[in-house]
Amino acid sequence: MKKTFIILLLAIPLILFIALFPIFSVDNQNSSSGNNSNNNTSESPATGNITTNTSPDKVAFIIPHPDDETIGVGGTIQRIMENGSTVHFELMTSGDAVTSQLLTVKNYYNIEIPSNSTADYRKKLIREDSFKRVMAIFGTHYNIQSFDDGALNSEIVFTTMENLYLKEGYTVFYTTTGDGNGDHLACQQGMAKMKEKYPNLKYRQFPIYYYHATRAATTALTNNYTDVNVNTYAAKKKSAFQVYYNINTILNTFYPYSDGLYSIGPERIYYIN
Predict the structure, then answer these.
(1) Which of 68, 103, 183, 237 has the smallest set of CB atoms within 10 Å of its CB?
(2) DSSP H or E segment with residue 172
């Protein structure tokens, strides 16, 4: 009898532990889950830096001229795509202006050009071809609207953005800031109209020559900006610069690839909302 009592005394706690273990286990998991439920950061194994996770978006870049995308956001493009976002480019003009300031455009890639082409049409074809080659480097979708250099206005830009939003579902828009170039300014003004009509979308701007003292001062729609280090993405950006450098469509005073020297980063991004 005494022996049976001792066995029961030892067995009862063990039975209770087995019966109650699943309850304690679930409570402990819930507690751990609750502590991390609002944590939206991750640690990069390579650098140990804490980075914020963001959901993929549909992002549209409205580009005034071929090369503006590489100069202004060549690294940012890759950073956005790395997150899984869909990226699309609308090239608004062909950059076909022929002036005494601009150096001669060379048909470096030997594209087919009609023999009776005017100087501006010849330049249009070469510059559009260079843009297509750069889009292949970045690996993204694009459309070329082929307006003449200097012919852009805010209504054209607004309509382009609105169609991309309503028909294609793009909700994040990038374009240039205003400066001394009329096509750059048209893009800024078109974005301002878009923001007024659709204030809940995301709008971003980037300057083209903000680092160059001889260029007209940048005017953005906001003072809220971040200078982003994009050296991680230097390889493709350099390759894109090389495409434009090869066709020699350069104005030495302004272009960062005029001497074969490539400006990689940082890139200035204005966050409007």
Answers:
(1) 103
(2) strand 172-176
Beta strands in 32-137 (DSSP E): 41-43, 50-52, 58-63, 86-93
Contact 218, 179 (CB under 8 A): yes
State the pLDDT at residue 109.
97
Enter the tokens of residue 9: 């005394």
Query: How far apart are alpha carbons 271 and 198 in whole angstroms?
Result: 16
Positions in the chain whose pLDDT score sits under 50: 5, 7-9, 14, 16-17, 20-53
3-state secondary structure 122-133: HHHHHHHHHHHH
Q: Are 223 and 249 in contact (CB under 8 A)?
A: no
Alpha carbons 232 and 95: distance in angstroms, whole number: 29
Question: And the tokens for 142?
Answer: 């694009």
126 in Cβ contact with 107 (< 8 Å)? yes
Q: Which helix (H) or strand (E) holds 113?
A: none
